[in-house]
Design brief:
By secondary structure, this protein is α/β, with parallel strands linked by helices. The protein has 13 helices and 13 strands. The longest helix has 23 residues, at 336-358. The chain starts with a strand and ends with a helix. It binds uridine-5'-diphosphate. Residues 17, 20-21, 24, 190-192, 216-217, 242-243, 245, 248, 268-271, 274 line the site of uridine-5'-diphosphate (UDP). This is Glycosyl transferase family 1 domain-containing protein. GO terms for molecular function: glycosyltransferase activity. Residues 182-319 form the Glycosyl transferase family domain.
Length: 361
């Protein structure tokens, strides 16, 4: 049994949606580790909610999301930084833990790594975005080999240190997702409403395919959302808010397919597995994590990136996909126990390489 301290993203409280997929990823990893009899404590911004998992809430100002900045963005911290204070907590309490797991895509935790006595594992949640982040992660990958994990090979490929990355993929509590064999006449789009997510392509496609689109997720960029509504005034779209997993999966299950139209290299795409778990095929651009998740012609369709026509023809072929096969596929590779096996391998490697480099037992 290992004692593990999980440090959440500093861009939003767990449950707010502002932290994107990291919120659910952290929750699932915590559950998976507890099921393996490890002891888990989570440190997260104040206002976070986590059922049945020990949680330390830290007040302070949130970080700005890295994906909203340019490649040459400087490293910034607000006054009274929640990130700084979360890592103060980790520093003061590190002797109580065997491994600290960092979920923040932020410079500070990587920079601090050599100053800690406790081993730090980093789960990198996005592909290469800024030079400052690439540089600091690469330094850690070189000084502490084995400590960097990613969610997909495509994400690793965006980094120069791709060969040092452990591909953890992701895992979900599939008992929370119900298989729905009888969808309604609707498609789904789920995610943060922000430019890198490319919602406008899904809207353009459903307008051509003449099928309604339901949209779930936090509106992170209000002006982007306004511009989509202004550009497609007649599209049959309905914004249905940000729902907790239990309600989201029920509504998502009623859809004929999930559209994933990211502009960026999506590191993974949690929503793809959530859809498959409900028996919902995924139509995604052949780019980033979704291209590794979707089995073309079996659990959905992969489409030429940025092609609206491609999306439209994939929508027309949805009756070729067996919804039961989608659910089966999620169970095979993306259950909590499948991820638990991968987590054990990753954490064992970190502890062993730490022990051998420090010469302890
Ligand atoms: N999500 C949610 N409720 C909603 C819409 C989205 O809980 O109404 C969650 C979803 O479960 C997923 C996350 O938002 O975990 C989006 O993560 P993803 O990996 O797809 O993209 P990211 O936001 O990390 O880029």
């Amino acid at each position: 049994m290992a004692r593990l301290l999980l440090l959440s993203t500093p861009v939003g409280a767990i449950g707010s949606g502002l932290g994107g997929g990291v919120e659910l990823t952290l929750t699932n990893i915590a559950r998976s580790l507890i099921a393996l009899n490890h002891s888990v404590t989570v440190v997260a911004p104040e206002g976070s909610a986590l059922e049945d998992i020990p949680l330390i809430q830290i007040p302070g100002h949130l970080q700005i999301t890295a994906q909203s900045q340019g490649r040459d963005a400087l490293v910034t911290l607000p006054p009274n930084s929640v990130l700084g204070k979360m890592w103060d907590y980790a520093r003061h309490n590190q002797s109580d833990y065997d491994v600290i797991i960092n979920f923040a895509y932020d410079w500070l935790p990587f920079y601090l790594t050599p100053f800690f006595d406790c081993a730090i594992a980093h789960l990198v949640s996005m592909g290469s975005l800024t030079d400052a982040m690439d540089h600091i992660i690469e330094q850690v990958a070189s000084s502490f080999p084995t400590t960097i994990a990613v969610h997909s090979l495509a994400q690793a490929e965006t980094f120069r240190f791709k060969d040092a990355c452990f591909n953890l993929k992701n895992g979900f509590d599939l008992t929370q997702y119900q298989f729905n064999p009888t969808p309604k006449h609707q498609l789904a789009w789920v995610g943060r409403i922000a430019p890198e997510k490319g919602l406008e392509d899904a809207v353009a496609a459903i307008e051509k395919a003449r099928i309604p689109l339901k949209i779930w997720g936090v509106i992170q960029d209000e002006s982007y959302w306004q511009s989509i509504q202004a550009n497609y005034p007649d599209a049959a779209i309905e914004y249905c808010g940000f729902l907790p997993t239990q309600d989201l999966q029920k509504a998502l299950g009623e859809s004929q397919a999930l559209l994933m139209t990211p502009r960026w290299v999506e590191a993974f795409g949690n929503v793809a597995i959530e859809a498959l778990a409900c028996g919902v095929p995924v139509i995604a651009y052949r780019r980033g994590g979704p291209a590794e998740i979707v089995k073309d012609g079996k659990t959905g369709w992969l489409v030429e990136p940025d092609s609206i026509e491609g999306l439209v023809s994939a929508i027309a072929k949805l009756d070729h996909i067996d919804r039961a096969m989608c659910r089966q596929d999620a169970e095979l590779e993306y259950s909590l126990s499948a991820m638990g096996n991968r987590l054990e391998i990753w954490l064992d490697r970190i502890v062993q390489s730490r022990n051998s480099s420090f010469g302890c037992a």
